[in-house]
């Protein structure tokens, strides 16, 4: 009766925990897709795992396939999300021009846009709002884990009425019973002495809720309560890990942003021997002796009676 009557707080996570091999496989496929953004690469890898990988007989076709596979392998390892082989070649040329290494660019994280060969730095408000949102999400995960992490009570829901309640140690009480007064709503506590025969739903508001909850309070489903407590304890650990991951991402993104700003400042420095002018021309380096430079003489036709110098046009 309990399995059909009640819903535990984290039944979905409990099912995922039991099906962890499938979940891990889905996570791996999701990571590969997120880093490569290529269905072709996923399809090719599936065929390779099945032993159905083939090669083209045409050398041009095979070269195109090899180049595209190399591109996706490169994206998988670096996470640059390059869209084409041409973009990959441009990235290599740009890195050689600026004497950069992949390890240096990776320290800029998602702030480096490899397809545009630039660093995309958000403004202060965007950075502040994103960190606040991620931090709020982390706090919500940790708070949710602390709420359901109880070793003596199980958080259940009556499916017929949607009532959430805590049950354990031969008593039950409303979900917000331990909250501050202004958040408690209409609190109630149900003990064994309240489970008498009759139609009075007191202290709860519904007679159906009282009847089904009393079965748990009277100890008729101790095994179900123990399983629910174990399930919500595992769920609390998962929620706490998600919260820690959120705060970890705030720290990592802050390091990425700092490194991206440093690289952008270093690459935007103008070479010392050329100073750009507003019109787009360049001026000589300061200190250069302009008086030592003479303008070339115009080429004119020789005067009558003079011979052309060797190598000059007639």
Mean pLDDT, as a whole number?
79
Main sheet strand line-up: 1-4-5-6-7
Number of helices: 10
What is the CA-based Rg, rounded? 36 Å
| Strand-pairing-aware structural class | alpha+beta
- Dominant shape: elongated
Largest sheet: 5 strands, antiparallel
Kindly, what is the distance between the CA atoms of the first and last residues, rounded to a whole number of angstroms?
A: 113 Å
Uncertain spans, ≥5 residues at pLDDT below 50? 272-309
Q: Got a strand count?
A: 9
Helix/strand order, N-terminal first: HEHHHHHHEEHEEEEHHEE
InterPro entries: DUF6216
Pfam family, one: DUF6216
Region (Disordered): 274-314
Transmembrane segments: 15-34, 128-148, 236-258
Brief account:
With 314 residues, the chain is of the alpha+beta class. It has helices spanning 2-5, 11-18, 20-36, 39-49, 59-78, 85-98, 102-106, 124-148, 207-217, 222-267; strands at residues 6-8, 112-113, 118-119, 154-158, 163-168, 171-174, 189-191, 275-276, 282-283. It has a domain at 1-12 and 121-267.
């Amino acid at each position: 009766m309990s399995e059909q009557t009640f819903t535990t707080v984290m039944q979905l996570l409990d099912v995922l925990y039991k099906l962890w091999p499938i979940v891990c496989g889905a996570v791996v496929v999701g990571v590969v897709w997120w880093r490569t953004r290529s269905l072709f690469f996923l399809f090719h890898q599936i065929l390779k795992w099945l032993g159905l990988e083939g090669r083209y007989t045409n050398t041009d076709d095979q070269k195109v396939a090899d180049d595209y596979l190399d591109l996706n392998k490169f994206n998988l390892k670096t996470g640059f999300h390059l869209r084409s082989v041409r973009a990959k070649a441009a990235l290599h040329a740009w890195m050689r021009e600026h004497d950069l290494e992949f390890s240096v660019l990776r320290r800029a994280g998602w702030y480096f846009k490899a397809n545009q060969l630039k660093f995309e730095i958000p403004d202060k408000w965007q950075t502040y709002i994103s960190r606040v949102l991620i931090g709020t999400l982390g706090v919500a995960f940790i708070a949710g884990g602390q709420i359901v992490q109880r070793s003596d009570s199980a958080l259940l829901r009556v499916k017929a009425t949607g009532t959430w309640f805590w049950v354990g140690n031969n008593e039950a009480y409303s979900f917000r019973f331990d909250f501050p007064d202004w958040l408690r709503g209409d609190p109630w506590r149900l003990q064994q002495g309240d489970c008498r025969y009759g139609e009075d739903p007191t202290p709860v508001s519904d007679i159906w809720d009282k009847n089904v909850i009393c079965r748990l309070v009277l100890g008729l489903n101790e095994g179900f309560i123990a399983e629910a407590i174990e399930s919500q304890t595992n769920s609390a650990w998962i929620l706490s890990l998600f919260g820690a991951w959120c705060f970890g991402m705030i720290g990592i993104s802050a390091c990425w942003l700092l490194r991206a700003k440093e690289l952008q400042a270093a690459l935007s420095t103008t070479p010392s021997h050329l100073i750009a002018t507003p019109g787009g021309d360049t001026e000589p380096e300061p200190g250069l002796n302009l008086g030592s430079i003479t303008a070339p003489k115009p080429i004119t036709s020789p005067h009558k009676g003079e011979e052309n110098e060797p190598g000059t046009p007639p």
